[in-house]
Each structure stands twice: as C-alpha cells, then as structure tokens.
Amino acid sequence: LIQMLRSAKKRDVLQLLRRAPEEARPFLVEAAVATQSVASLAALSDFLDFSQEPKSLLEKFLYAAAFSPRPSGELLQLVLDKLDGKQLAPEIWETGIVAVGSLVGKLCQQKLCGLQQVVERGVETILKGLRGAQEEPRVVISLLALGNARLPETIPTLLEHAEDGPTAVTTAATSALQRFPAPHISSKVKQVMRRIFHQKRKSYDKTCRLAAAEILLDNHPLPMDVINILLATTEMDTEVATFLLLKVQNSLR
C-alpha cells in the first residue's frame, strides 16, 4: 500500500481516504503518513479536519507522525498547521504537542535542524504552550515534549521547572533532562541535580531524586558525587538505596 501511495497523485490519495469505510480510515491515514510523499501529505492536509474528525482518527494521525522513524520537515509542517490557532480537545492538543517534540528531536538527529523555520516554529509552539499553561497537566505535557525534542537551548527552562515546580512538574523536567546526551550535561545541570538529590532547597519526590542521582552517575560522575550519593542511601528506604548501590556497582564494573 505504501509503495502504491508513493506513486499516487494527491487527488487519488484524497479520494481513497474519503471513500474508504470508516473502520479502514485509521489504517489508511497511518499508511499515508508513512509514505510522506508530497501528494500524500497534501491529501492528509485536505482530509483531516481537526475541528470535526473523530478523536480516534486524529490521534492515529498524530501517533503515526510521532513514531515515524525518519520524518520530513513537511510532516512537521503539516502537524503544526493542524494544531495552529484551533480550539482542540485537550487530549488532541496533548498528543499533538508531544508529537511535535518527537518530530523536532528526530529531525535534529538526522542533522536536519537546518530546516530552521519549521524547526524553530515547532520549538516555539511547545514553549508557547508551556508559557500559557495554567494547569499542571499542560505544563507536564509541554515538558515531555521538550524532552522529546532534546534541544540544548531548552535546558535552562527544564532546570527551572525541575528545581522549582510542584511534584509532577519536577519529575517531568528531570525525566526530560535524563534524555540529553552527556555533552549537554554541564556543570550547571549537575549543580541543580545535586541540590535536588540532597534536597538543599525543599523536599522532592523520590522519583525526582532518583532521576537527579542517575543524571549525576551516568554523566562522568565526580568521586565526591558518588561518595555523597552512597552516604545518602543510609537514610533512604531499602528499595531506593538498593537501586542506587547497584547503579554505582555497574558503573564501577
């Protein structure tokens, strides 16, 4: 089907989508996303109406885009156009923002961050959602999207939320920071992770502290960090202490 769609014209793909039985449409949408031809993306743009289509079909489209192994800039552009300036159901907005983060991250992995306009628009869409979020779940989703994107310029934003946010927000931000490669885990990042793990400013959730410890241990740890983490395990519950001890032992091996 994908091979057939690659050679099809826009009107043929659009006709196929419109005439297909309702139960077959999610499958055809997924195939059209996988094709990523100019014609198939243009047909999807005309076919998908984010204000009217069933949520299940829109989510299928967004999931297919997010999990695309080698997305194009045109696919990111299509997702952004469909999310832009519309009153969307909360779950569609959330899936869409996470998909945007995934697409930006994969484009940059392919060394296609040079598609400056569309990539910058993707990042700005996520950051705009984060700045405008008034409810905690929206903040968390935006941070997950930044974790998917893994752009170094967003690290200061993630650090701010990791250290100062409520529990769900700090956990999402530290989890996002775990996804960055070692060259981006700077001394500033490590300083914040130390404050979180040792609870210098306030109490943090166990999951958040574990993520902070892992960032310290997985990215060229200083001997003093290892010693301080081991000393801290004497005051932690058995499960967490055992996990951190095994982590140190694996590093030594």
Task: Describe it.
Residues 1-243 form the Vitellogenin domain. GO terms for molecular function: phospholipid transporter activity. One of its GO terms (cellular component) is endoplasmic reticulum. The protein is an all-alpha fold and 253 residues long. It has one domain (1-195): Leucine-rich Repeat Variant (Alpha Horseshoe). It has 15 helices and no strands. The longest helix has 20 residues, at 90-109. It is elongated. It starts with a helix and ends with a helix.
What distinguishing features does this structure have?
single chain; Leucine-rich Repeat Variant; 253 residues; elongated; mainly alpha
What is the number of helices?
Answer: 15
What is the CATH third-level topology name? Leucine-rich Repeat Variant
Number of domains: 1
Structural class: mainly alpha
Mean pLDDT: 92
**SS strand fraction:** under 5%
Question: Would you identify the regions where 5 or more consecutive residues have pLDDT less than 50?
Answer: none
CATH architecture: Alpha Horseshoe
Tell me the total number of β-strands. 0
Rg of Cα set: 21 Å
The string of secondary-structure elements, in order, is: HHHHHHHHHHHHHHH
Helix content: over 70%
GO molecular function: phospholipid transporter activity
Protein name: MTP protein
Domain Vitellogenin: 1-243
